[in-house]
Structure formats: C-alpha cells, structure tokens
Amino acid sequence: MEVYEWTPKNIDTIEFATLKAPYYHGLLSREDTSEMLKESGDYLVRYTENEKEKKFQLVLSVLASHAGGLTKILNFKIDASDQGLMLIGTQKSYPTLEKLISALVLIRTTNPNILTSTIPYLLNPVLIKPWEVHHEEITQNNRICEGQFGDIYSGTLNLPKKEPQNVIVKVINLDGKAKLQVREFLNNARMMRILNHNNILKCYAVAPFYSPYLMALEIAGDGGLKTCLRASEVDNRQKIMFMTHAACGLDHIHKNRILHRYIAATNCLVHGDCLKLSGFSLAIKAEAFKIKVDHKLPFKWCSPESLITTTWTQKCDVWSFGVLCWEIFSNGAEPYGYLTSVELIKKILRGDRLTFPDNTPSEMVEFINKNIWSKDKERFTAAEVLQSLEEMVRTITDKDKKANSSPEKNAISPVEIKAESPVEKAEKNAISPISPAEKDKKLEKNPVSPISPAEKDKKPEKNAVSPMEKERRDRTVEKKERTVETDLNAPIKPEKKVSEASSKNKNLSSKKYKKESKTDPSTKVSMKVNKKKKKKDLKELTHVTREK
C-alpha cells in the first residue's frame, strides 16, 4: 500500500504562497486537469501525488503543441523549500507562485528558442472553476457522524452574490492516506459534479486548496436508505418507487458513459419520498473497465461474468441493481449473509441466487430473475429496466385510482337511489295481481264511500279515529234525530208511501253509513232504536187523527 507523506514545510509554503493565485486549483485529479486544459498554451498549478517519492507536491501543468498539430500535457514539478518555489531543473527560487510564473513567462518571451521541455510556453492561465471554493466559504456547524475519510457536519455554503445554502459538509483529511484512497476521494467529488440529476446526490462545491479538504453536498433529510427501511414500515408501493428512482439515476449515469460499480443500499440516501444515488468512489468514465488486482471489488454486488472476465460493463451495474432491489424488499438486510469472499464467489459462480421475502410481489420476483439476474447478453439495460418499472408504477396507480373512485362494498350508488312513485310502491307491496272483474266483485261486497285524494294519501293508525271522522259521525247522528222530528210534524201520508220512503231512506242510510256502523257499534244500536220509535209515533198519530 502506497502512503504519501504530507510535510509541514510543504503545507505551510503552499498555504501562504499560493492560495491567492487565480490559477492554483489545489488537489486536482488528472482527469479534471485534462478537461480544463483545452488550447495550446493553457496552464494551471495543482497539487498532486508524487508516485516515486511517495509524497504530494506542486505541479505546473501545461498543454503544449507538437509537430503535426498534436498536443500533450506537460507536468513541471515545483520544489517548495525555505528559500521559496523553484521549477525543478532551474537554479533560481521565487518567494511566491505568482512571481515564479511571471518569471517563466518573461524567460520564454525573451528567449523564444528555449526548449519547451525545459521552460514551458505559458499563454493562457486556467482560472479556478465555480465549484472550487475557498475554505472560509464553507461553514461547519454540528457534527452528524463519522464518514470514510473524516467527519460529516451540517453546514452552510456562502458563495458571493448568492443566498446562503444549507448543505452537508464532508471533512476529508488525507494525511497519511493511501494513494488509492486519495484517488477515490477525488473521483467521488468529480463524478458527483459531472452528474446533475434529481436521483443523484449533488456536490455543490469543493474546497481543495489545502488539507483538510471540504465537500459541500446536497442534504438528504431522511438519511441512508438502510436506516429508513429498518426504522419504519415501508409498503411495497414505496419500495417499488425507490427502485424506480434508483433505475432512473442509473440510466442517467450510463447515458453519461460512466460506470458506477457499486450500486448498493449503503450508497443510497433518501430525502422525503425521493431516493438519491451516491458513493461514486469506484465510478469511472468508461463503457467498459478492466479490473486490476489492487482494485476494490464489492463481491456481493458482482455479476458472474465480472468475476470470470475481470471486466466491468454497464450490464454489471444492472446486476448490482438487482441486488439493491433485494435489499429494499428485505428491509436493508445483508445480501448472502456473512460469507467469506471465497465462499461468496463460489456461490455466485455456481448460479445460486438471493431468495426474496414472501411479501415481495410475485411479478417483481419474476421480472428480476428473468431480466436482471439473467445472462449478460439477455440482461436488460438500465433504460429498459426503468421503462418496465415505470409501467408497473402506472399499473399500480391506475388500480389505486379505480379502488378509490368505486363505491364501498355492498353500498348503493347515488344513481340507484331514487324516490318511488305511489304506483311503483303499490306494485312492490302487492301480493298478487287482481283482475278488473275480481276488483268489481270485491267493491260490490264491500262498498266504500268516495274518498278525496288528500284523505287517500293519509294513512290513519290502526283502530284510531281521527278528530274529523269523529266530528262527522256526531253530525250524522244529529242529522238523523232532526229527520225523525221533522217526520213527526209532517202531514199525514198513506202508510204504504211512508213505508216506501222509509224503506228508501233505509237503503240510502245503510249504503252511506254502512262503513261507519261497522266500525262504531253505538251508531248501529242508535239507528235501530230511532226506527222503532218512529214507527210507534206514526201509529199513535194516525189513530188519534181517525178518532177526531
């Protein structure tokens, strides 16, 4: 393991002599350097590792042109000592970086025939980028936890002419760190800057000018995915949404020709209902990558072909995505348990697959086994996985909408509820239909006096007499009594005619009051008494008249 030494002398020299130079970029990767130098004569100063001397030092990087129009980046080492800064290969030191660069420009201008390999041709300084900020522009607040390279804090990013922005601050101390760890840190910051997507954690700024270095990252308010899955119950609908967000982020990564190489729950963060991919320390800008012996490899997320061919492709990332899906449905459990690396590799190459929990939707298990954990040639791309998951989400959403819009079980819909007309109600309550002939016979047997529509709609209680009915009955009795008195004072008529009139009145009375007399026995007895009394009075009156 190669470890680089940070000497206090170098740190002090860089801190005081170079920080204010507009073309000093601090700790900068070779990949970023090659992207910044675009035209012949472009130059910048950076801090990088010296592989031979196992230490970090200042380097002047220049894009030089050669015969045939070819360009090449030349790196000139700058020696930092008590006397100042000196370009290695020259004899004179300068107190500051700006004076050193100014002297090199002057020498090149006055001596144009000097070889470029000795004195670089400096034309255009490459100034620091917006994402490269000074340490004082990032404020550290409360410590949250410990990370891979250092502590993690809540903080604020204070950029000129912009409102302060709340961020997560990663403090990276690379003193005594291995070369591979340094490159992982630089690679992580670089990839997160390149990728700008809602499902990828954003890196807003880096303070790269001296150690400890600072990274200002987007806030993920709900923390790691594993923590969310273990802390609370997450339903299958939300789990599928998390998978869709991860697939969306992975598709964006692959469209930028980047391999993530570690799609796992430990590298996923959650903010609200949104999942964000992070952890780009192993990522590389390539469509295929040959894995070296000294490279870290997450075996549990490796596809079988990557272990056989030692080549990582986009299809290997898709396999890792399948393991992430298993982690999500297993609520953040550890894949394959705690097997040793040798046992794990044998298990994967043997074709053994992870078994999903029983509560995983069967169509999801079938989809992953058939299209993600399949042979690399048959395996879906990230774009195809995303399209399939989005269709599943739409299907679930449509089912939920139908379930919410349909009436409750056994409930009557508003369309079915309507008022029944009297005819419909009568038909509904009828026991059997009655023909018109039967209806006439029934009326002959039980004649009923006509009833007004208002009275017809009224339904008196059983065996109850309304006040109006009682008053009508009293008037009927009173009328009959007056009729008897009138007959007593009337002129004498033949007995036969009287009996006919009486008989006619009798029939009329019986028809008119039959219903009342049936319901009121007292009225029936009163009528019989009045009839007898009437006959008796008529006989006595006739007898007296004859005698006179």
Keywords:
548 residues, alpha+beta, SHC Adaptor Protein, Phosphorylase Kinase, domain 1, Transferase(Phosphotransferase), domain 1, 4 domains, disordered N terminus, SH2 domain, SH2_dom_sf, Tyrosine-protein kinase
Walk me through what this model shows.
Helices cover 43% and strands 16% of the residues. By secondary structure, the chain is of the alpha+beta class. It folds into four domains: 8-125, 2-Layer Sandwich (SHC Adaptor Protein), CATH 3.30.505; 135-217, Phosphorylase Kinase, domain 1, CATH 3.30.200.20; 225-399, Transferase(Phosphotransferase), domain 1, CATH 1.10.510; 491-523 and 542-548, no CATH class. The strands form four sheets. Strands 1, 2, 3, 4, 5 and 6 form a six-stranded mixed β-sheet that branches. A five-stranded antiparallel β-sheet has the order 7-8-9-11-10, with helices on one face. Strands 12-13 form a two-stranded antiparallel sheet. Helix 16 runs antiparallel to helix 17 (521-547). The protein is elongated, with a radius of gyration of 52 Å. The chain starts with 7 loop residues before the first helix and ends with a helix. Mean pLDDT is 78; it is low at 1-13, 409-419, 492-502 and 508-525. Residues 138-393 form the Protein kinase domain. Its EC number is 2.7.10.2. Residues 397-548 are annotated as: Disordered. Residues 23-126 form the SH2 domain.
